[in-house]
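Supplementary material to the annual report.
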Amino acid sequence: MQEPLDVLIAKLASIGRLLPEYETAIRQLPIRVSQLDRGDDAVMEGQIMGHCCVVIEGLLQRHKHMQDGSRQILSFHPAGDIPDLQSLHLRKVDYTLSATTPTTIATIRHSDMQAMLRKHPGLTDLFWRDTLVDAAKFLTWMMLIGQASAEARMAHLFCEMFMRLKSVGTIDSFEFPFKVTQSDLADALGMSIVHANRTLQELRSAGLLIFASGQAEILDWPRLSELGQFDPAYLHLADE
Amino acid sequence: MQEPLDVLIAKLASIGRLLPEYETAIRQLPIRVSQLDRGDDAVMEGQIMGHCCVVIEGLLQRHKHMQDGSRQILSFHPAGDIPDLQSLHLRKVDYTLSATTPTTIATIRHSDMQAMLRKHPGLTDLFWRDTLVDAAKFLTWMMLIGQASAEARMAHLFCEMFMRLKSVGTIDSFEFPFKVTQSDLADALGMSIVHANRTLQELRSAGLLIFASGQAEILDWPRLSELGQFDPAYLHLADE
DNA sequence: GAACCTGATTAACCTATGTGAATCGGTCTT
DNA sequence: AAGACCGATTCACATAGGTTAATCAGGTTC
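Predicted assembly:
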């Protein structure tokens, strides 16, 4: 039977050992499911949070703005992610979470979460681990944005999304939906929209990747991951 | 009386509420103090860790390398930081920690740390919070490296170091030691050595900042923090 | 089905930053 | 004190990627 938090269970299982009793505890969490349209904010920079959210279906993006209005997308969050789990201990958030596509989320009150974690120290460790994996991705992205070419960054992003979606069982083929615009890609990779377009065309004409109207198809995984210097170790997946 | 872990106590107090019983527990942790020369590695990418380290004195840097050998410095860690606390739950580290200057560190076994945290859930939360603050810095740096000009990034780095050193009581004036080379700065900010040099000169001739032979002096804090778009909120300091 | 959007694409041009290489100035070594 | 380094600095030149703006294509609205 499909329950909303199934995706969270799958996500946690992908990064660590999830005991049956933990699974039970998670399923007993009171949640409130809600629906976001593209562009809606789930969390806004500066807000003081009393709850956090699980992506049930769709895609959220975490981003931050400079004074001049330019936007850096920090991460994409497909189903299973808890993109604002940090708010449990950093109540005032310093980023904005918006829906990249129409998205369903489940919100969990911090107090309920905390009660559960106090009861299960091992589960605390697993959630802690989740925030650490989240942080580990930033290390890699900082390196890429600071040092890698536009082509390498673009390649890496698609490799990462593929691997993450596969690890939680959302997809099982090299062709998968990734409903972002070229402008989103540009803002995520720290490049201009025009250059994002140029870069995608280079990858396409090199026969590595096709991306059009929200659909990605990886044509040559070995060469794409080579170009993107993609080594999945930083995702700290459990099954390896 | 000066004890090695005093700096850790000060650091934790700077980001949250540290109860007296926690302080006692921390002071009872068995530690092994050791000395690093400039360039020595405390932790190497790929290592499986059974312990983590506290910087007692000096400066460590966390960095990662690309295949072509280029290096991205991800963060600097002055006294009080536990730069590899993540290893508690991500045993295999995906970065290297090296001494930027001669540095004293104290190592703590994971098992001792874990025993302490199991006994004090509130302290677990505080250490968890520390790793989250660490991660929050990366969000900001990703935005800066992706979107900000070389000048803004350089300005921001000095603002951050000043604020962090001040918050743990290591310094109390706008003139402070920051023993890095221009090459370190370049690798931290994702720019070439030559451009780091140019940028420092611009900041100097604008009367904002002097940096020479490991000594920084902020001449005009209002304008420097304005230029660097520095808002200390992302450091999540307790006293605000 | 005309007007409108939003996102993709192209072109022409511009600039911030990178590269390579030479010079300079301390400081450590022998 | 003569090398030998390492880091800082300068210069000349190269280029990845940014900017602006125009056009195109598909979908939506009334």
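Residues 149-150, 191-192, 194-195, 198, 213 of chain A lie near DNA strand D (CB under 10 Å from a C1').
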